[in-house]
Fold this sequence. Notes:
about 200 residues, mainly beta, 17 strands, globular
Amino acid sequence: DETQVYYNIIDMSASTSPYWHCGVQVDEGTGVKFWNNTIYSPRKMGIVVRATAGTGAINAEVKNNIVHSATGYGLMVDTNSQTGLVSNNNIFYNSTTADVYWGGVFTSAVTGPTGGTEYTLAAYQALTGQDSNSVTSDPKLTLAPPVAITDYKLLDGSPAINAGTDVGLTSDYEGKIVPQGLNFDIGAYEYGLFGR
């Protein structure tokens, strides 16, 4: 419990798998934290909060994450994992199917989630009150092909700059002190004083 998953860069763009995989996932437990991750081209979901044995992943936090070009959903939260969820200050950009899958169950990597509802971010915000400070704007990442681990940084004008919330972390993916600006940034890299 209280597992923390933060400042990771996850690139699944090379995957050709037809199955329902995800960038990060929690299956059970209490108080799991997903903070400041950058997930690029996940197959099929960016962030998954679900139950495997019925009790769910309760009191989970999903904050300051970028999910870019999910081939399914940016976020999936099953029915048994909605208790205590706090999700905010995220960017769900260019999700192929829907921004959020809410409710139901995730039965297998073959069939994917069932019994829930697909929502745009706006509809999900109105329904749940979650992610009130989250957006679907282009995060403007450095993604010059071929994409390297040195990419995924924020470009000038990124909506991720100063749009995060304080989760108690003190340095980013490459050890840069946070925040560098007026507020914390969204994603694995903090936008620095000297640009990227």
